[in-house]
Amino acid sequence: MLGYIERVITARTVEELWSYHCDEMARFGFDRLLYGFTRFRTARSLGSAEDFLILTNHDESYIDPFMNESMYLQAPTVRWALENSGTCSWSWINEHPEILTEPEKRVVQFNRQHNVNAGYTISFKDVSVRSKGAIGLIAHEGLKQADVDRLWQRDGRQITAMNNIAHLKITSLPYSAARKMLTDRQRETLEWVGEGKTTQDIATIMGLTPATIEKHLRLAREALDVETTAQAVLKASFQNQIFVVPA
Question: Which residue ranges make up each domain of the chain?
Answer without folding.
Answer: 2-170, 184-238
